[in-house]
Amino acid sequence: MSIQTAQAGAARPSVSLALFAVAVALLAVAGVALAVKTWGLVALGLTALATVPVMFVVLILLTLGK
């Protein structure tokens, strides 16, 4: 195994992970859009309410410098 092969193999998981993260984000946005279209602003409010714990964790991690 050459160095070039090892470097190419090491880069693949990060690219596929980034692509997976983008795909999940796009699916989440599409899901919220469909929910708002179906149920109106109630779905948007419930989505915001459900993300409050996630934002708390993000703010704590930012405060700790991680």
Fold blueprint:
Blueprint: H1 3-39, H2 41-50, H3 52-64
Mean pLDDT: 85
Count every beta strand, where a strand is a DSSP E run of 2 or more residues: 0
Shape category = flat
Radius of gyration: 18 Å
- Helical content band: over 70%
Low-confidence segments, given as residue ranges, are: none
Listing every helix as H and every strand as E from the N terminus to the C terminus, the arrangement reads HHH
Q: Summarize the main sheet.
A: none
Counting copies of identical and different chains, the oligomeric state is: single chain
Q: How large is the count of helical segments?
A: 3
User: Please, how many domains?
Assistant: 1
Distance between the termini: 35 Å
Strand % is under 5%
Q: Which structural class best describes the helix and strand composition?
A: mainly alpha
Summarize the structure.
The chain is mainly α and 66 residues long.
Q: How would you characterize the overall build of this protein?
A:
With 66 residues, the chain is an all-alpha fold. The protein has one domain. 91% of the residues lie in helices and 0% in strands. It contains three helices and no strands. The chain is flat. 0% of the residues are buried.
